[in-house]
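Data follows
____________
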Amino acid sequence: MDKQVNIEKPEGKLGILLPGLGAVATTFIAGVEAVKKQIGLPIGSLTQMGTIRLGKRTEKRVPKIKDFIELSEIDDVVCGGWDIFEDNAYESAINAGVLKKELLDQLKPEMEAVKPMKGVFDQNYVKKLNGTYIKTAKTKYDYAQLLIEDIQNFKEKNGCSRLVGVWCGSTEIFLKKDPVHDSIESLEKAMQENHPAIAPSMVYAYAFVKAGVPYANGAPNLSLDIPALEQLAIENNVPIGGKDFKTGQTLMKTILAPGLKARLIGLDGWFSTNILGNRDGEVLDDPESFKTKEESKLSVLEHILQPHVYPELYADFYHKVRINYYPPRGDNKEGWDNIDIFGWLGYPMQIKIDFLCRDSILAAPIVLDLALFLDLAQRTGMRGIQEWLSFYFKSPMCAPELYPEHDIFIQLMKLKNTLRYLKGEDLITHLGLEYYD
């Protein structure tokens, strides 16, 4: 390949708007400010520390991704958002307890400057929270108009040339797709009638896409994943992605399961349980919110292992997921996995995993990468579902006629090949046919 796609230069400031200024969002904001001040490294961020191989291995061309393609500079990022509590980003970060106060105090002026806009909230959808800093309006459509005003005002006030939105709010109760989600017209009518199938996260998603702003959904909420918003995103030339950040236990599954399948090792059962004590854990203590998260987590193994293709190995495996709220653990989530496998002649074996992770530490670089890649996508004229960003999600959105790709190694190859394509570089296939030239 030698013809690259026209990419507009990322001139000016990029505003990153975050619905939900809790643990994930404030950890992300603090990280951005720490990197700007050179008192921290953006570890875990593909856009900042990742490299990309170009051409043949013998060419030894392996630039950093940020030096290869036109991404916004982290120094040009301005952060803002909404919350249902009035605390500024510094106060919220202190309450979240993810980052040490010594670090946050070095970033205090910048963090205190990020004051939330009033959120759109309905306790019927997140039963464990009681919002005190919320907007008032007659209909869900009116709420969306208020959010669109917020988006436009933020852009003007902060002198941003472009905006991106990333949902960092809570997990809502489980919702199935409803006929009102099928078209833009039926969705807007349902919003005007305060239909129960329209959750607050869907109001945010509609507002961003309607305003022409790229948007990613970091929770398992239905939100963006409906035909009406997919259609609106295409009509408004908006790239979108989701859903549910792939951080702790599911990250491990998408690393291990492809390895088991690659070596044709059978699976009898995979039992997963988590304990965590942050706001996310409290929300997920409600069975209806847990149902939403459970659906997101359970889909991974089925798609990776392909039981219909390998029935002798994976047709009857048992998969169970549990999440337990345990306040003393705070944001330091612990995920236990018991995996019953079998090998040659059916002989049983086991794998045990105890992943003591920090949920927000793993999520923060995902927020950065999604924001920068979605901004890149819009500057290249890409629109609709960005399947090449599946790398970052537990339940990747995809076209209706397709199934989602969950194998993290295939996801990474797709992401990097998309970047190669945009810059007119040969796609890497690993065929290794040089000896036959």
About this structure: The radius of gyration is 22 Å. The chain is about 40% helix and 15% strand. The longest helix spans residues 359-379.
